[in-house]
Design a protein that fits this description.
By secondary structure, the protein is of the alpha/beta class. The chain has one domain: Alpha-Beta Barrel (TIM Barrel). Helices cover 42% and strands 17% of the residues. It contains 9 helices and 8 strands. An 8-stranded parallel β-sheet has the order 1-2-3-4-5-6-7-8. Helix 1 links the parallel strand 1 and strand 2. It binds nickel (II) ion. The site of nickel (II) ion (NI) has 5 residues, from loops.
């Protein structure tokens, strides 16, 4: 039986409202030991912490996603900072930069990204980075931060950048996490990049409810489906899927720390 950790799931989404207990049962049955419930603003971050208190399989990540920074109130950030100290919160984010959806001024996105990086260092919880059509800017900010403060513990989530970006992020010490996209027929270039990621820097995630992996494509995505992404990556690397699951699970456990390791009761 493979052991898996879904490092990125938007379980607050209304698409999970009617059947979340069943979704979590299916995940456990598929070998998923832990799921990181990801917030994208103050309300959903609070929801994730509440879900983690209710369901032992869940831990939480809190932050304000770049597409949501413009609508954040002044006191949302101090609330995130307080919420981030909760023991069930294992990561900071998601944060990052996004030029694809023009929903927030870029300078404001940069300001919030910098805040998340600082909070991640201060609390020693890894930062979860979203990057869409902003690879050069994300790398620029990470390098500045690296030169000033040294390596930060973190994840490039649902990685979709090019080989050069992957190389730079790995050189900065970051982990690369892959979602369902890497299983798509047209994603040869992304698979080629995923194949080159050292096994000790590789993670898997669903980013559910979005972008279900093959053969579930078109359906609502859910944490149980993370197996299909792991399976795709394993086939592509020519290694056993159980080994790929085990390695990515070990990486997640090491990254998120002891709070994620023993099953809570
Ligand atoms: Ni996300």
């Amino acid at each position: 039986m493979p052991r898996l950790i879904d490092t990125h799931a938007h379980l607050f989404d209304e698409r999970f409202q009617s059947d979340l207990p069943q979704v979590l049962e299916r995940a456990a049955a598929a070998g998923v030991e832990r799921i990181v419930a990801m917030g994208i603003d103050i309300a959903t971050s609070m929801a994730c912490v509440e879900l983690a208190a209710k369901y032992p399989i869940l831990v939480a990540s809190v932050g304000i996603q770049p597409n949501h920074v413009a609508e954040a109130h002044a006191d949302d950030w101090p609330k995130i900072e307080r919420l981030a100290t909760t023991p069930s919160v294992v990561a900071i984010g998601e944060t990052g930069l996004d030029r694809y959806r023009d929903r927030a001024p870029f300078a404001l996105q940069e300001e919030y990204f910098a805040r998340h990086l600082e909070l991640s260092r201060r609390l020693q919880k890894p930062v979860v980075i979203h990057c869409r059509e902003a690879e050069a800017d994300v790398v620029r900010m990470l390098k500045l931060d690296f030169d000033k403060n040294g390596p930060v513990s973190g994840i490039m989530h649902s990685f979709s950048g090019d080989a050069a970006t992957a190389k730079e992020c790995l050189a900065l010490g970051l982990h690369l996490s892959f979602a369902g996209m890497v299983t798509y027929k047209t994603a040869d270039a992304l698979r080629e990049i995923a194949r080159e990621v050292p096994l000790d820097k590789l993670l898997v995630e669903t980013d559910c409810p979005y972008l279900s992996p093959v053969p579930m494509r078109g359906k609502r995505n859910e944490p149980a489906f993370v197996f299909h992404t792991a399976n795709g990556l394993a086939q592509d690397r020519g290694i056993d899927v159980v080994e790929l699951c085990e390695r990515t699970t070990q990486n997640a456990l090491r990254l998120f720390g002891s709070s994620i390791a023993p099953m809570k009761n």
